[in-house]
């Protein structure tokens, strides 16, 4: 079949602007919420468990739906699923902004995560369908800039919107700001984005999705609620049962792969040593990030009593350091030093965490933002060296026919690890806060909890360093994206344009 000519430049670049705006909206939404968590807790009267689910619920729904969202786009059209995702994400944002109670906010965040899973996988596929290969390098470079801008602007935007208390709405504008952006993306997307489908799309694996979601829920719910309920016996039984559900998932996926070749998780991928190790790295890295970002926010705003804007500005050196190191790692360092760059990133991030613990212990409640700058820059540099080239390293030995499934799975397990890390906050942070002497006050208790949680993060970085030794010494291929494409699931097949 002869593909039709590409649309005129103006239409093509308008379509790119629309999908980039939607991707930016999702990236910012993750970081913007973290900075407002203490305000949500105070204003909405949310419990610590509900606070965890406001973030973990989004990550879980996003993770569970990512691969299925990509498959639905292959089958029914990437433009159609993108627009459905944008519409649903915008509606869910409105429900979050107008939530009457914490329960409604948690439910709306889960819906928002599910809609993001419909929207985000289509972005890369639409780019592949809209731009010829020789232009994609420039396009993915733009995505890299957008990712960096999202990392820097999300916390600051969240801090400003919360601090300004627009119309007395407290934290609600952090969600309501998505409404005009989403509506514009929906209206313009209908007109300027070309439809595309995969010519031989795989079938859906809804049973696999259900088993993954059930297993994670059985693990995460007791972790987030157990502390408040006194760690009941049913919680331990549920966590043990989660392992059984995941074992059933493995057996089912093997049978489905043999039967029709369209499992949610391709079992043969795990026979590739570098991929199996990379999946472990992505999962554990997600756990570390899930723990750190929530605990960090609570430490600054509740423990130290800082305003959202003060906390948001404190994080700027971290965000800039991540962006700069990510660009340098892909363009300069990885082609020359390979796997050593990733391992150096793990060591740097671990060193930054230990430095942060030392400074927090030394200065206590009187610590200033400028004193946090050095550990945050070191941590950010380490994280930047990891995040941009990691997906390339993990995928480098995967057979080409499974590249789409493998890329989707990498993104999925990172989100699952993030949700698990958020659930573990109950154990590694709140457990220490609860055990602190009542006479010491909330501030010192949160400082102790922060330091204890960061020790766990440092231990996780040591595990990541060891796991990275199983990655290829030098990736066999490098993504065009300069790191940005690595953040998005790849399409299952070369897209076919349709009218």
Description of the structure:
InterPro entries: EmrB-like, MFS, MFS_dom, MFS_trans_sf. The chain crosses the membrane at residues 12-37, 49-69, 81-100, 106-127, 139-161, 173-189, 201-221, 233-253, 274-299, 311-329, 341-358, 370-395, 416-433, 453-471. The protein is mostly helical and 499 residues long. It folds into 3 domains: 7-195, Growth Hormone, Chain: A (Up-down Bundle); 206-263; 268-491, Up-down Bundle (Growth Hormone, Chain: A), CATH 1.20.1250. It contains 16 helices and 2 strands. The chain has helices spanning 9-44, 48-76, 78-97, 102-130, 133-164, 173-176, 178-192, 206-225, 233-260, 273-303, 308-314, 316-337, 339-363, 369-395, 403-435, 442-467, and strands at 196-197, 496-497. The protein has a two-stranded antiparallel ribbon. Helix 2 (48-76) packs antiparallel against helix 3 (78-97), helix 3 packs antiparallel against helix 4 (102-130) and helix 8 (206-225) packs parallel to helix 15. The longest helix has 36 residues, at 9-44.
Strand order of the largest sheet: 1-2
Please, how many helices?
Answer: 16
> What's the alpha carbon Rg, rounded to whole Å?
22 Å
Using the alpha-carbon principal axes, give the shape.
Answer: globular
Amount of helix: over 70%
Level-1 CATH class name of the largest domain: Mainly Alpha
Q: How would a textbook summarize the main sheet?
A: 2 strands, antiparallel
Unreliable sequence segments: 1-8, 477-494
In the CATH hierarchy, what is the superfamily of the largest domain?
A: MFS general substrate transporter like domains
* CATH architecture grouping of the largest domain: Up-down Bundle
Number of strands: 2
Structural class based on helices, strands and sheet pairing = mainly alpha
Protein name: MFS transporter
Domain Major facilitator superfamily (MFS) profile: 15-477
Keywords: Antibiotic resistance, Cell membrane, Membrane, Transmembrane, Transmembrane helix, Transport
Pfam family, one: MFS_1
């Amino acid at each position: 079949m002869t593909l039709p000519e590409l649309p005129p430049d103006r239409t093509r670049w308008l379509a790119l602007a629309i999908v980039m705006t939607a991707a930016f909206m999702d990236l910012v939404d993750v970081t913007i919420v973290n900075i407002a968590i203490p305000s949500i807790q105070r204003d909405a009267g949310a419990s610590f468990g509900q606070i965890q689910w406001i973030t973990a619920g989004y990550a879980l729904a996003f993770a569970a739906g990512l691969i299925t969202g990509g498959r639905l786009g292959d089958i029914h059209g990437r433009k159609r699923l993108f627009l459905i995702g944008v519409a649903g994400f915008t509606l869910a944002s409105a429900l979050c902004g107008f939530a009457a109670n914490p329960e409604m906010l948690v439910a709306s965040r889960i819906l928002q995560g599910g809609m993001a899973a419909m929207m985000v996988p289509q972005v890369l596929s639409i780019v592949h369908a809209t731009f010829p290969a020789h232009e994609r390098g420039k396009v993915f470079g733009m995505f890299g800039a957008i990712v960096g801008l999202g990392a820097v602007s999300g916390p600051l935007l969240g801090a400003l919107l919360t601090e300004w208390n627009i119309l007395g709405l407290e934290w609600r504008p952090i969600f309501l700001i998505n409404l005009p952006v989403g509506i514009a993306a929906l209206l313009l997307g209908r007109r300027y984005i070309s439809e595309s489908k995969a010519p031989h799309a795989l079938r859906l694996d809804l049973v696999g999705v259900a088993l993954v979601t059930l297993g994670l829920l059985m693990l995460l719910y007791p972790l987030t609620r157990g502390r408040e309920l006194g760690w009941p016996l049913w919680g331990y039984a549920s966590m043990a049962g989660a392992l059984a559900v995941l074992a059933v998932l493995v057996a089912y996926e093997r049978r489905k792969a043999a039967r029709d070749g369209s499992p949610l998780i391709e079992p043969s991928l795990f026979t590739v040593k570098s991929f199996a190790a990379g999946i472990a790295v992505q999962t554990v890295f997600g756990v570390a990030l899930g723990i750190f970002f929530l605990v960090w926010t609570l430490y600054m705003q509740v423990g130290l009593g800082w305003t959202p804007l003060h906390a948001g500005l404190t994080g700027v050196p971290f965000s800039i350091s991540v962006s700069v190191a990510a660009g340098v790692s892909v363009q300069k360092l990885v082609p020359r030093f390979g796997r050593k760059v990733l391992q150096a990133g793990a060591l740097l991030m671990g060193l930054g965490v230990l430095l942060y613990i030392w400074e927090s212990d030394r200065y206590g409640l009187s610590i200033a933002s400028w004193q946090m700058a050095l550990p945050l820059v070191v941590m950010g540099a380490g994280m930047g060296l990891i995040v941009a080239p990691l997906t390339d390293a993990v995928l480098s030995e995967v057979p080409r026919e499974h590249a789409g499934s493998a890329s989707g799975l990498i993104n999925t397990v990172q989100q699952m690890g993030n949700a698990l890390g958020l659930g573990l906050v109950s154990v590694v942070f709140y457990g220490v806060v609860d055990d602190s002497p009542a006479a010491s006050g909330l501030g010192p208790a949160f400082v102790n909890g922060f330091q204890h949680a960061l020790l766990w993060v440092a231990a996780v970085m040591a595990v990541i360093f060891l796991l990275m030794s199983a990655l290829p010494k030098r990736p066999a291929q490098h993504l065009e994206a300069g790191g940005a494409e690595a953040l998005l699931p790849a399409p299952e097949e070369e897209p076919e344009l349709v009218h």
